[in-house]
């Protein structure tokens, strides 16, 4: 009688590698597109935090004003403005149309921008963003309910530009870092109060003082991109799981598995598909951080009193209106708790992401460990803690001050 081999040899690793190779061979274009988008998003966001451009600030200010106009009676003019500006951005990106238009106009219209920003050429993106800001500012000024908000935002942009490109360069050697610190501190002040604003000024200045500013902004960009993608994926899945018990039963064991696996495991397929760099770090972070967002979204919707839903149905509200007008607003504190956990878990992946070339603070922490450089590791670790407190308090303040309900 021949012996039976025990334990049997099961080539799971070979199957896994073969599956990865098949996916990469057949869907390589999709992975390349995802990698390019993630890389672009991280670079843009990190670059903005390290050295904000006037055009980027104008674009953000215009978006804030446009957001306040969405619920006003100016929706059609706003839609036309957004459509035209979007078309200008696309045409300039593809055919450099902005440069053609600028070159055909009188030079004196742009000399002030060249002198203020100390640039040899006029930035077409800045001109398009400024046009966007001017258009929505005029539209907001025409509407009584948004007039004050529009004046504050547009005036704030002007103050930021004058401060960052005229006043601060005469006072400090790194004006853009100080401008970013002031903007983030202003955000903390508005969202979480003066104590958080003061904390942001002092701690972010400390991060810059120990030479970790660029790394911290790289990390902040990576964390925000990963968190945003994770939230965009997690909330719809959580809503679907709350509405459908079958989906909930399928999702829960998958989430259990995602939360049980060590974080390093996610890096293996991520590196295989996206090579070394920031992209595999972001992808692994998304997978690692997503489960709390799904779970707490489902929990928040399921724990809403059924009588409130029935009342909405009795008044003839549609399922979509009940979801957006009753369930999501009432579940917002629980959902925001999930968003907070997503951000914290994303930040906890910083060091692991640094091991695969993601850069930022994680890379310095890893180097401090491998080189036995306590000073470098401690400085980077302190910066990670400061970012964690900053993001945690901001999301907590948004949850506390957010709307609790909305009218059906």
Can you describe what's shown?
It is found in: Cell membrane; Membrane. The chain folds into 2 domains: 123 residues, no CATH class; 188 residues, Orthogonal Bundle (MetI-like fold). It is 81% helix and 0% strand. It is globular and about 100 Å long. α2 runs parallel beside α6, α10 packs antiparallel against α11 and α10 runs parallel beside α13. The chain has 408 residues and is mainly α.
Structure characteristics:
mainly alpha, globular, 2 domains, MetI-like fold, 408 residues
Could you provide a short overview of the structure?
With 408 residues, the protein is mainly alpha-helical. The chain has 18 helices and no strands.
CATH-defined superfamily of the largest domain: MetI-like
Average pLDDT level: 86
Shape: globular
**Which band does the percent of strand residues land in?**
under 5%
* The CATH architecture of the largest domain: Orthogonal Bundle
Chain-wise SSE layout:
Blueprint: H1 12-50, H2 54-69, H3 75-95, H4 97-103, H5 111-116, H6 124-142, H7 147-167, H8 175-192, H9 194-209, H10 213-243, H11 245-260, H12 263-274, H13 278-302, H14 306-314, H15 319-348, H16 350-354, H17 360-370, H18 374-401
Helix pairs in contact: 1-10, 1-12, 1-13, 2-6, 2-7, 3-6, 6-7, 7-8, 8-9, 9-18, 10-11, 10-13, 10-15, 10-17, 10-18, 11-13, 12-13, 13-15, 14-15, 15-18, 17-18
């Amino acid at each position: 009688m021949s012996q039976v081999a025990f334990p049997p040899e099961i080539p799971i690793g070979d199957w896994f590698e073969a599956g990865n190779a098949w996916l990469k061979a057949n869907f390589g274009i999709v992975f390349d597109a995802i990698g390019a988008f993630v890389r672009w998003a991280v670079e843009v966001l990190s670059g903005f935090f390290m050295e904000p451009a006037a055009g980027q600030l104008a674009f953000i200010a215009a978006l804030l004003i446009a957001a306040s106009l969405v619920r006003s009676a100016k929706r059609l003019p706003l839609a036309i403005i957004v459509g035209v500006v979007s078309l200008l951005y696309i045409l300039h990106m593809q055919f450099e149309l902005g440069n053609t238009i600028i070159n055909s106009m009188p030079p004196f219209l742009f000399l002030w921008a060249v002198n203020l920003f100390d640039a040899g050429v006029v930035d077409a993106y800045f001109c398009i963003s400024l046009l966007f800001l001017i258009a929505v500012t005029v539209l907001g000024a025409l509407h009584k309910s948004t007039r004050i908000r529009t004046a504050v935002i547009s005036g704030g942009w002007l103050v930021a530009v004058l401060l960052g490109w005229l006043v601060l360069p005469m006072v400090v050697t790194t004006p853009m870092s100080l401008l970013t610190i002031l903007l983030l501190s202003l955000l903390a002040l508005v969202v979480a109060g003066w104590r958080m604003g003061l904390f942001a000024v002092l701690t972010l200045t400390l991060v810059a003082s120990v030479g970790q500013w660029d790394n911290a902004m790289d990390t902040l960009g990576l964390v925000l991109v990963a968190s945003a993608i994770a939230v965009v994926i997690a909330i719809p899945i959580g809503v679907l799981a709350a509405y459908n018990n079958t989906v909930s039963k399928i999702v829960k064991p998958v989430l259990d598995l995602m939360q049980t696996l060590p974080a390093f495991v996610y890096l293996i397929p991520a590196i295989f598909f996206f090579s070394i760099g920031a992209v595999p770090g972001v992808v692994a972070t998304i997978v690692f951080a997503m489960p709390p967002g799904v779970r707490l979204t489902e929990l928040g919707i399921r724990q809403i009193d059924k009588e409130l839903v029935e009342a909405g149905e009795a008044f003839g509200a549609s399922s979509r209106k009940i979801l957006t007008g009753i369930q999501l607003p009432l579940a917002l504190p629980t959902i925001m708790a999930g968003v907070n956990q997503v951000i914290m878990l994303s930040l906890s992946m910083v060091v692991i992401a640094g091991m695969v070339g993601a850069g930022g603070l994680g890379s310095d922490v890893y180097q401090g460990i491998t080189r036995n450089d306590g000073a470098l590791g401690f400085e980077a670790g302190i910066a990670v803690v400061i970012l964690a407190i900053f993001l945690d308090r901001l999301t907590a303040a948004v949850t506390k001050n957010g709307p609790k309900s909305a009218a059906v």
